[in-house]
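Suppose a colleague, Dr. K., hands you the sequence of a protein chain of 152 amino acids and asks what its three-dimensional shape might be. Before reaching for any lab equipment, you can write down a predicted structure in token form. Begin with the sequence itself:
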Amino acid sequence: MNVLRRTKVATLLFSLAGLLLSGYLTYWNYFGHSCHQNPLSWMVSCGGPKRVLIFGQPTCVYGFFMFLAVAIVALVGIRKVSSVGITKALLVLGLLGTAFSGSLAIYELWFLKIQFTGLPACVYGFVLYVGILMSSMIALRHIRLNSTASTS
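The predicted structure, expressed as tokens, is then:
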């Protein structure tokens, strides 16, 4: 398996882990008693007693759709291994996701000073998006190195 395909598969795996995490938290926000009373609250904590909402929706909902977008683009990228446009799209999604989850983690930890029972969910999302960002940066660097090598 070449470098580009491996980076796209890694991106897909990061996004699937993010889909599981954010989907799980979305379920507990909408259908469970509350997100902070879910069975895995000792490991994944979300918002403490007050939910953090954006436009009236829990933040995990936005995370779910962002991870879904990454998964779709990564699946397309696996089929078209050498596509520069898809790699750049994954890089942009990785940057947006890293900024989104990182800013939410900072907001929850330092501004709201929420007492978490486990690691905040936004921190998990941040780690997954950093993985997406790094794998897309590796892929883009590989594409650029190959294009300069072929032109010389």
